[in-house]
């Protein structure tokens, strides 16, 4: 294998290794960022819903029916303004029918979010915060309870399931560009370092190959060389290979063959 072929193979190996490392880092950090974004959105929604819940339950405890509460639209509009990128904020009765919503088209719509219409939460807490994703929609809700701890309804936030997709794509793109800017010089340095580290062993292998190829040249009368005289000693020691002993053994056998050939030739002449 020529030096050009070795350099090309080393460059390909370094490029693939750096690419896989960079891709793995981008994927892991993007997943971590997605988790953090999801937690941040859930925390913000929980805060807004908790404020709406407190205001609505205060009025419910005065003995008013959920459908008769005043200024609910103003309350929902304020919650809607605090949560950009959502579809609507709505108040549902205990049967899951929307009584108030920031999107007037939704009023009267019956929803099937079971935590909202039944128990207020997956664990049976009538006032617990919950979230659920269905198809292209994600819903966050909190149950409304009366002073007797009975379910009065719920407050619901609806948003697209991919609302955080665009920030994540932008984050992944920025991260990929940064990884590329780091990976290119890193791969170049790795390639140059690999060539430098491999230069010594490659020279040693070339010297050993030359010695082995020349074992049969001028074998007549060639005397076995001692390890100190062997030209392969230095590269062999560099690689930790028993080449001197091997070459001496081959030379001894070549000497025996030369002597045998001379003896056969002598016998032919006598015959």
Automatic annotation (TrEMBL):
<keyword id="KW-1133">Transmembrane helix</keyword>
<keyword id="KW-0472">Membrane</keyword>
<protein>
    <recommendedName>
        <fullName>Two-component sensor histidine kinase</fullName>
    </recommendedName>
</protein>
<feature type="transmembrane region" description="Helical">
    <location>
        <begin position="171"/>
        <end position="193"/>
    </location>
</feature>
<keyword id="KW-0812">Transmembrane</keyword>
<feature type="transmembrane region" description="Helical">
    <location>
        <begin position="6"/>
        <end position="29"/>
    </location>
</feature>
């Amino acid at each position: 294998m020529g030096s050009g072929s070795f350099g090309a193979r080393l460059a390909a190996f370094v490029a693939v290794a750096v690419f896989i490392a960079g891709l793995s880092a981008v994927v892991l950090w993007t997943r971590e960022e997605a988790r953090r974004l999801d937690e941040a959105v859930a925390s913000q929604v929980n805060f807004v819903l908790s404020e709406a819940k407190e205001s609505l339950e205060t009025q419910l405890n005065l003995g008013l029916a959920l459908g008769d509460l005043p200024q609910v639209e103003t309350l929902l509009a304020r919650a809607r303004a605090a949560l950009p990128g959502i579809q609507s904020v709505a108040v549902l009765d205990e049967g899951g029918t929307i009584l108030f919503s920031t999107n007037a088209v939704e009023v009267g719509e019956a929803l099937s979010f079971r935590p909202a219409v039944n128990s207020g939460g997956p664990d049976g807490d009538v006032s617990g915060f919950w979230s659920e994703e269905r198809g292209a929609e994600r819903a966050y809700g909190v149950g409304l309870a009366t002073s007797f701890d009975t379910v009065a309804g719920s407050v619901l936030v609806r948003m697209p399931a991919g609302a955080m997709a665009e920030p994540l794509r932008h984050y992944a793109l920025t991260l990929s560009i940064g990884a590329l800017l780091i990976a290119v010089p890193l791969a170049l340095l790795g390639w140059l370092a690999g060539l430098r580290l491999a230069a010594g062993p490659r020279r040693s292998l070339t010297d050993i190959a030359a010695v082995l190829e020349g074992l049969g040249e001028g074998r007549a009368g060639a005397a076995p060389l001692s390890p100190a005289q062997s030209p392969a000693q230095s590269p062999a020691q560099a690689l930790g290979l028993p080449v001197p002993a091997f070459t001496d053994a081959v030379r001894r056998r070549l000497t025996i063959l030369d002597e045998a050939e001379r003896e056969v030739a002598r016998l032919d002449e006598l015959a």
